[in-house]
Amino acid sequence: MPRDNMASLIQRVARQARITFRSPAGPAFGENLHQLQQLLDEVRAEDLHLAPRGPSAAAAAAAGGGIPWGGVVPPVSYMHICETESFSMGVFLLRSGACIPLHDHPGMNGMLKVLYGTLRIACMDTLPPAAAAAAAAAPPPSAAAGSGPCHRALYRSRQHYTPASPPCLLSPHTDNLHQIDAVDGPAAFLDILAPPYDPQHGRDCHYYCLLEGPQPAGTEPPGLPREVWLMETPQAADFWCGGEPYPGPRV
């Protein structure tokens, strides 16, 4: 059963997010961010009137009034909760095996809390210009002609997150690029971005692919953290995001 304080919890999260991100350069930002992280860690799927979905639930939801996509169910759906000038908040729902490709959050902070299922999140940083220039002495692996620009980056971590995990955090300079995969079934997470994406103010989303040569059979994957090359790419043809109504308490 949903908890008695479910209506107030997501409202308190939104209120604390507004306090935290209206002055991200202020002296109280660290403490405010910590308080927001603690509140976000309490949120569960039932607080937002969500229940874990079976493999066919996304198709059933689409048939029951979701946005049609040419008869194809989107691999990822988004439930908008609220947005201000300083932050946006919503829920991403991933079908089993779905992936949100490697992408960035220019100049943005972010917080991600798993509501159900298991996510594998790979986090990376673009290297500062001086470090990238030094690393450029080693050219990137060969890529197809006409490919996008390449960037040197630090592959920091690759971890599994569940509802029992603390929120995954990103800042303008740390863990700012990430790839999110649903593991062993559908998954959902609450997402806060501050400030929201806004191409007119230089906060557009860019996608990347990891440039690494084939790994010899029987060898262990390279350790982390490690420096890597990334190539900018268009949004993948098999990735798009649909929309669903948010069923939880009003914010």
Specify the CATH homologous superfamily. Answer: Jelly Rolls
Instruction: Look at the helices and sheets and give the structural class.
Output: alpha+beta
Number of helices: 4
Question: In total, how many beta strands?
Answer: 10
Radius of gyration in whole Å, from Cα?
19 Å
How many discrete domains?
Answer: 1
Query: In what range is the share of β-strand residues?
Result: 25-35%
Give the distance, in angstroms, between the N- and C-terminal Cα atoms. Answer: 21 Å
Mean pLDDT: 87
Shape: globular
How would you describe this protein?
It is a single chain. The protein has 251 residues and is of the alpha+beta class. The protein contains four helices and ten strands. It has one domain: Sandwich (Jelly Rolls). Strands 1, 2, 3, 4, 5, 6, 7, 8, 9 and 10 form a ten-stranded mixed β-sheet that branches. A hairpin with a 4-residue loop joins strand 1 and strand 2. The radius of gyration is 19 Å and the shape is globular. It starts with 5 loop residues before the first helix and ends in an 8-residue tail after the last strand. The relative contact order is 0.24. The N terminus is likely disordered. This is AEDO dioxygenase. One of its GO terms (molecular function) is metal ion binding.
